[in-house]
Amino acid sequence: MSNASSPVATSPQPDVQKASRVCLNCKRKKKKCDKALPSCSRCVESFQVCQHEDDIVAGNPVTAGYLYGGVSSPLGNPVQLPRQSPLAWGGSLRPSLVASIRSADNINLYALQCVIDILDSRQGIEQTILAFFEGPNASWFSIIDRSNFERLLEDFWTSPSAETCVLILCMSLISRPTISSPGPTPMGDTVYQSAKTLLSLVQSQSSRPLSTSFLQAELLVAMYEYTQALPQQAYLSVGRCFQMSRALGWQDKSYWGPNNMATIPKILKLHSILWWAMVYIDNHLHAAYQESKFPLHAPTLGLEFEIPQPETFGQFAPTPSQLQIQSVGAAYCDGNSHHIDGMVFPEATSAFNLNTALSPLDSPLMLSERHEELSDAVWQHTLDVFQTPWSTGDRSGAMSTNLIAMLKLNQSGLLAGSTGTDLRFSSPVENIRKAIAYLHNEAANLPSFQERLARGRVAPFWAFAAYYASLLLISHGETELQMAADWLQKVIDLKNMLHICAGRWKIAERYAYLLDQQLGVRLGTYVG
């Protein structure tokens, strides 16, 4: 006899506790919340504290286990944290939370929670890191050893480090696709504010506040401030880097002596890269904001020796014929740059070139013959970098820096009417025309330029280089530079490139505005 109609016995299902309202994280992100307790599925997936308005009103505490969806804290004993996201209001750090930081465990978890909340999830963090290493770290200036950083990440999700959290957040500042905000300055950018606040907080809680990681983070902040037209903030950030380098012993000649060369060459190489990255940003600030009269930091240190350039450690081959391909199948000069052994930094030579170009005209470096020799040397380095095969297509930071140095070195000769009588060297007019031609070629190929810009592979120094070249075209295009037929079209093309860059960098917006004024004055159409 069939028992198909008999009721089937079922085991009772456990009651699933549900919150009466959606959690604050899902509400803020406008995502669907399953209201599960003690943590909704979205908060479990993104490692976030699942919080509700009722908890905040009641002031209920939550253990660090809530960061991991109700499981035990990977750091051992649960740590008492306020039951609220540190960035629940507008993505900025809440001062009231700082008072709860009492231990190393707390600061590590606190920093992790801040970064997760800002970058949305673990996936968001991983995408930020990838964008940084394939964009700015590869094209602007390589200041972080990728392989070593990836080793740190292996244990990051089970044993978070506040230092690493800060570095990730600072990476995001310059690797985000669009970071310009409405208004005259980006001071309303809460990611920038949070990065600065978290950097200071973690340093104050760290047992080693003077470390390479903190210096790298400060350099990234300085670069962001430069790109967003915050020159005074950038100047202070770079100054802190130089002070940290003094405290770390880098300004002592013996630090770079044969003993350390023999025992810690990889560490010295990284520190050399960071030193020249500091000089690199310092000189760009001085060049781009000469009206502000920011004195260069390095000359004020009173060093009686020159910090060795990274190529001292055998990492950069100046020409394609001398490339040292170390891994099977590697086809690029920076094909092994994931490791400190293969990290390249042509920007060090470019920084030296720009530093020389910014030297006073009566200094020994700028004597007539030396001046012309340096100008040709800068152009040769530009060609070497241009002809070298790079994994990202070019080395945008070094190229734009060299072009600025070329324009600076030859502007004085142009104004003085120099004809370049010494046949061993190119004339100032010829050098400026070559630099402008390279810049204009980029401006005339906007689709390619926009694609690289979107991927973070165009250094922000292109903005000043384009502006500076445009000013020379406006003032000398019809006369000394002998470009009467097309100087105006070149300026318009460079201006269009600046407007495209303005979608990413405030400094490009600034130069686009100034260039519009200058061109209007030249054509008689500007109304002040």
Q: What topology emerges from the helices and strands here?
A:
Layout: H1 24-29, H2 41-45, H3 53-58, E1 61-63, E2 80-82, H4 95-98, H5 104-119, H6 122-134, H7 136-139, H8 146-154, H9 162-175, H10 190-205, H11 212-227, H12 231-247, H13 258-263, H14 265-288, H15 347-357, H16 368-387, H17 396-415, H18 428-444, H19 446-454, H20 461-476, H21 487-501, H22 506-523
Antiparallel strand pairs: 1-2
Helix pairs in contact: 5-9, 5-10, 6-9, 9-10, 9-11, 10-11, 11-12, 11-14, 12-14, 14-15, 15-17, 16-17, 17-18, 17-20, 18-20, 18-21, 20-21, 20-22, 21-22
Describe this structure in words.
It is a single chain. Helix 10 packs antiparallel against helix 11 (212-227). The protein has helices spanning 24-29, 41-45, 53-58, 95-98, 104-119, 122-134, 136-139, 146-154, 162-175, 190-205, 212-227, 231-247, 258-263, 265-288, 347-357, 368-387, 396-415, 428-444, 446-454, 461-476, 487-501, 506-523, and strands at 61-63, 80-82. Helices cover 53% and strands 1% of the residues. It has 528 residues and is mainly alpha-helical. The longest helix is centred in the middle third of the chain and has 24 residues, at 265-288. It has a two-stranded antiparallel ribbon. It contains 22 helices and 2 strands. The termini are far apart.
